[in-house]
Design brief:
Elements (H helix, E strand, L loop, with lengths): L6 E2 L2 H7 L6 H14 L7 E2 L25 E10 L2 E11 L2 E2 L11 E6 L10 E8 L4 E6 L3 E3 L7 E9 L4 E5 L3 E3 L4 E10 L4 E10 L12 E12 L2 E12 L17 E9 L4 H11 L5 E10 L2 E10 L2 H20 L10
Parallel strand pairs: 2-16, 3-7, 6-8, 7-10, 8-11, 9-12, 10-13, 11-14, 12-14, 13-15
Antiparallel strand pairs: 1-16, 3-4, 5-6, 14-17, 15-16, 17-19, 18-19
Length: about 350
């Protein structure tokens, strides 16, 4: 199997960006301060070198959405009641909300669909999402449609998401694809806290949007950052820091060592006590049946739980969705006795 080296671990960065015991608001303030104060030396970048935070030579500094009022806010906290998972706290404001919950089977797992009535992310837009899944609760979270990033003159668009999973809690995070259009810049920062018995499955597909000249990779920058920590009674420890940067203007991102001639990127992140090399091998076998270039990395084991990251490259959103769907179907059947996902959105 080919290992894709996109997991970064850097003690100095973590000490600055996510100190143990910080709440979500304080953590984001610390993360924003880190971004303003110094470079991301730990990034494994696709397509460029450098930190990407400061202005280019000869350009004025652009304002950060971190100082703006959020365009949309969403809080969703899930607990268990009567053998089913239900919302025990729900809040939305601005251009984010969720549809009524529904249940796809008799497992008790609740499914919520996130909606952005505005239809897209624009320049300087800031979206805040807070998700908590309590002890023993089970949430499937998806989106109504693709997340579209349009032109972002003046400043990048940004989504900040905080996820907290309790003991025995499970989250499947299955959004539709992220589409970056011409002259778009986007940052997605996700902070995830799990317990040793939590189960997390998180999938994402990134694709370049249409441009007038028909060429791909006309967006300015995509920066996707996932920080995953394992919380125990003795405190929290970093399990994985996953940084992905795609910056087409800085070089040929389709070339060797970057995206290998492909245009679409798929990612699957799994954190569970049942993750091991045998599972990685089984998932790698699944990818062999698809027209995509894939690799898998395992994290170290902390407090009995391990992380897995699968990266896949293709020229088709549909092919990557099928590949990630096949991988999640294996996990759903093996671990929970559930059928493959059929969200019936189209």
């Amino acid at each position: 199997m080919k290992t894709v080296p996109l997991l970064a671990h850097d003690g100095d960065l973590i000490a600055e960006a996510a100190r143990p015991g910080l709440g979500a608001a304080a953590w984001w303030a610390s993360w924003g301060a880190h971004c303003r104060e110094g470079p991301d030396s730990s990034l494994r970048e696709l397509g460029a070198a450098g930190d990407g935070h400061g202005p280019k030579s000869g350009e004025a500094a652009v304002p950060s959405p971190a100082t703006s009022s959020p365009m949309g806010e969403l809080a969703l906290h899930i607990g268990q009641r009567g053998g089913r998972s239900v919302a025990i706290h729900q809040f939305h404001q601005g251009a984010l909300r969720v549809l009524r919950p529904h249940y796809l089977d008799d497992s008790g797992q609740v499914c919520y669909v996130v909606v952005n009535p505005g239809g897209a992310y624009l320049g300087a837009d800031l979206f805040l999402v807070d998700v908590a899944v309590g002890d023993g609760a089970d949430l499937l979270l998806t989106t109504q449609s693709a997340t579209k990033i349009y032109r972002t003159p003046g400043s990048f668009a940004e989504q900040r998401m905080t996820v907290r999973l309790g003991e025995g809690a499970r989250l499947e995070l299955m959004p539709d694809q992220l589409i970056a259009y011409r002259q778009a810049s986007y940052r997605q920062n996700t902070y995830i806290s799990v317990r040793p018995s939590s189960s997390l499955v998180m999938a994402e597909v990134v694709t370049p949007g249409w441009s007038p000249d028909g060429a791909s990779f006309r967006y300015e920058e995509l920066r996707l950052r996932n920080e995953i920590r394992v919380e125990t009674d003795d405190g929290g420890q970093l399990l994985a820091l996953d940084n992905l940067l795609i910056r087409p203007p800085a070089g040929d991102v389709t070339g060797l060592g970057h995206m290998e001639g492909f245009s679409h990127l798929g990612s699957l992140v799994v954190v569970d006590a049942r993750v091991d090399q045998s599972l990685a091998d089984d998932l790698h076998s699944v990818t062999a049946d698809h027209e995509a270039h894939a690799g898998i990395s395992l994290t170290r084991t902390l407090a009995g739980t391990t992380g897995l990251v699968l990266r896949s490259l293709s020229d088709s959103t549909g092919e990557l969705n099928r590949l990630l769907g096949a991988c999640t179907a294996l996990l759903r059947e093996r671990w929970h006795g559930q059928a493959p996902l059929d969200l019936r959105k189209y």
